[in-house]
Specification:
The chain is mainly alpha-helical. The protein is built from 16 helices and four strands.
Length: 495
């Protein structure tokens, strides 16, 4: 009887420990934060509950079994990956395509589609390795080449999520991050749509992905993982910067590149004189809707597990977006006298961008406030700021993704405060949520400042080098003709 009682007590304690572990809060990290692949018998990871009975026998304790991926987590990551692909093709392509003139619709669709294909291949060749492996002496800024060509990445290899002892297949994490890289590069197209050479755009995309996206992804998201917390991490991760799903890595990063491209390439022929209204707002509305749907994979998928935090990220992605769409709509209504569909759609995108870094950290009420501020701020960004500085950012990439990305990144440092409904920042050293400090805002400013300078300088230099060697801009007669026929020999519409 004593042996039976002792066995039951031990099983109960193990069960409670497993439940507590599985429900720990999300740490101060973003979607891509991961360690090296967890070895098949990693001794530091917690054993699955099924192994508990063996510990209660009189036989010598056996080595703890390696954690096994939960099918629900894996399924959610597969679905999230598909949703982010949906954001890019066709979501972003249609959103951008509807905003340009009819003679350039097909060119924008082709640019987005081609970039997705190019970055997908580069990611598995060297991108994943440089973003998510240790980089030796350069580890603060870039990874290494140990997983080039996906060496060692196969369906049997797992990586930890944000919970110690909880794993997912490394291959699903890798392909999920592939979609982030692809949409980031594709976002840049909007800054200089209707006037760039297709060949120059492809060259820029390869170089920018290598020298701007990969270092930023490593700096923000690379760390040792829960079982190796405290190991060397990326520069901004070590600074404590929070970015749940890519406010810095994706949106500010791409916005700075788009702004530099708009400045270096120059304004479109006839800008400020000729009518350049969007030719198909129906396509834009469909694209914006697909972006919103796909963004649930972008934000909620960034939790890497199908848990309550993923649900929080999904709720925030709904309410912040709705609030931003309404604030833009009402502000425009007051200023211009009419609420436009384009304004509502643009406001929604602004809300999506702003909530991205805060999705798993802010409470729903905080997300609503963030969305409301972002909607009004981005309306100013695409009107007042753009006109004051005089640049031709064709589809307002900086005005929306740049302004909302900066607001969201800084706002995350405020809204994570539990007193404001946030989740707090999980401290793996104490295995508990840390006491909130206003110093978190300083960490967020480090993130914003670093990406603005890094992407701004890298993008400007790359655009200048390409312009001096192969040229960035199509000839004026081709620009007037339209890139659909001049570059691709096709038309989006044959009526």
């Amino acid at each position: 009887m004593k042996r039976l009682f002792a066995t039951l007590m031990l099983l109960g304690s193990l069960g409670l420990s497993s439940v507590a572990l599985s429900e720990q809060p999300v740490p101060a990290v973003a979607p891509a934060a991961t360690a090296e692949a967890v070895p098949a018998a990693a001794p530091e990871t917690a054993p699955p509950l099924e192994a508990a009975p063996a510990a209660a026998t009189d036989a010598p304790a056996e080595a703890a079994a390696a954690p096994v991926p939960d099918k629900g987590d894996t399924t959610w990551m597969l679905v999230s990956t598909l949703l982010v692909i949906l954001m890019t093709i066709p979501g972003l392509a249609l959103f951008y395509g509807g905003l340009v003139r009819a003679k350039n619709m097909l060119s924008v669709l082709t640019q987005v589609f081609a970039i997705f294909c190019v970055i997908s291949v580069l990611w598995v060749v060297y991108g994943y390795s440089l973003a998510f492996t240790p980089g030796g002496d350069l580890n603060s800024f870039i990874g290494g080449l140990s997983k080039m060509f996906l060496a060692g990445v196969d369906p049997s290899v797992n990586v930890e999520t944000f919970s110690k002892g909880v794993v997912i297949p490394e291959m699903v994490f890798m392909v999920f991050q592939l979609t982030f890289a692809a949409i980031t590069v594709a976002l840049i197209v909007g800054g200089f749509a209707e006037r760039i050479k297709f060949s120059a755009l492809l060259v820029f995309s390869v170089l920018w992905f290598t020298f701007s996206y990969l270092p930023m992804a490593h700096m923000v998201w690379f760390w040792g993982g829960p079982s190796a917390y405290g190991d060397p991490a990326g520069f901004l991760f070590a600074k404590g910067a929070l970015d749940f799903a890519g406010g810095t890595v994706v949106h500010i990063n791409a916005a700075m590149a788009a702004l530099m491209g708009a400045i270096v390439i120059g304004k479109r022929v006839g800008y400020g004189r000729d009518a350049m209204a969007p030719h198909n707002l129906m396509a834009t509305m469909i694209g914006a809707s697909l972006l919103w749907v796909g963004w649930f994979g972008f934000n909620a998928g960034s939790n890497l597990e199908a848990t309550g935090t993923a649900v929080l990220a999904m709720v925030n992605t709904v309410v912040a977006t709705a609030a931003a769409a309404m604030s833009w709509m009402f502000a425009e209504w007051m200023i211009k006298g009419k609420p436009s569909m384009l304004g509502i759609a643009s406001g929604a995108v602004a809300g999506l961008v702003a909530v991205t870094p805060a999705a798993g950290f802010a409470g729903p009420m905080g997300a609503i406030v963030l969305g409301m501020v972002a909607g009004v701020a981005c309306l100013w960004g695409v009107t007042g700021l753009k006109h004051a500085l005089g640049y031709d950012d064709s589809l307002d990439v900086f005005g929306i993704h740049g302004i909302a990305g900066i607001l969201g990144a800084i706002g995350t440092g405020i809204l994570v405060n539990p007193a404001l409904g946030g989740t707090g920042v999980f401290d793996y050293a104490t295995n508990a949520v840390a006491e909130y400090s206003s110093a978190q805002v300083i960490s967020q400013l480090w993130g914003v400042g670093t990406v603005v300078v890094w992407s701004g300088v890298v993008s400007f230099v790359l655009f200048k080098l390409i312009d001096m060697t192969m040229g960035l801009r199509v000839p004026e007669e081709q620009e007037r003709e339209g890139l659909d026929t001049a570059t691709h020999g096709e038309r989006a519409y044959n009526l």
